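Posting here for the record, re: pyridoxal-5'-phosphate.
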Amino acid sequence: MVYEGLLDRYGALLNLPAHTGQVSLLEGNTPLIPLPRLAQELGGGFELYVKFEGLNPTGSFKDRGMTAAISEAAGRGVETVICASTGNTAASAAAYAARAGLRAVVLIPEGKVAAGKLAGAVAYGAQVIQVQGSFDDALALVIEISNRTPIALVNSLNPYRLEGQKTAAFEICDTLQAAPDWLCLPVGNAGNITAYWMGFRQYDALKQTGLPKVLGVQAEGAAPLVLGRPVEKPETVATAIRIGRPARGEQALQAAEESGGRIIAVSDSAILSMQRRLAAEGVWVEPASATGLAGLAAEIQRKRLYGRDQRVVAICTGHGLKDPDIISQTMRAPLRVHASLAALEEVLGSITNT
Ligand SMILES: *Cc1c(COP(=O)(O)O)cnc(C)c1O
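Prediction output follows.
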């Protein structure tokens, strides 16, 4: 069977209006990569997989929701779409709008967007507007604009985004033939955790695939759902989850509670160290994407979660290429040698002897 994207594969299970078109870049269908070495290091005795969402067309899971939101908007005759974004939504909206022949306007918080994301939005031809404020300020503005004009909002407040994002839960169940025991993922604006929970519940009702416990993980400097109040000036290296007022915060808390899981926070250093650990196994993700696994490691260490005899799936939401600076900032300069065999042999000797 030829793969034609998520709406083609799972459209019958998504609650989308009849006028919805089919705007696809063949998103989804991302791999579930087993990480037995990391599982062993975390105590062993359980199966660990990462769903590498960085392998979507624009490098993040946002493409799952965007194929649905842009397909709906295009089918309704919308000409311009708008979103606020910490970066990945902007790149995704820009790409799918380009695919559909629509105009995209993206608002980003000033100075806090990773280089690969901004470049993506520009490359796909979006009009990029920097707001002198936070993501939360930018979101409030685009909500207001979409209420006053025919411009369509494609943030995850748009219900079709969540319909598309549910498909990641379907894929996990299809691959494992059941839901995992635990699902770990980063939480920013909280659309994704909400969509996963919707998806797992729907599949369970349909196919008795069971339900996972959900561990949502925020960064300590941007943890409104752990603190129980908004954070005015969220701060974290994980820019994709640098959000102080999650639009779907209530639903995220409900998903965690209903599932028997919870929402916790981890430090930036734990996030960066898990990013390195994943890369050491060949999976390079952006910092936010290592947050779910950093939370898993912390919970196992505190003995608040026993991996034993369980299957754990961690969602790696975006690709490492999105945020090259995080790596190059702390990188040692490459070794330099004369273009001679003797010089190379000398350097190689010092490397292989250590
Ligand atoms: C958007 C995003 C998140 C957070 O998802 P929410 O739905 O806002 O909770 C996490 N990681 C990456 C890479 C993202 O792009």
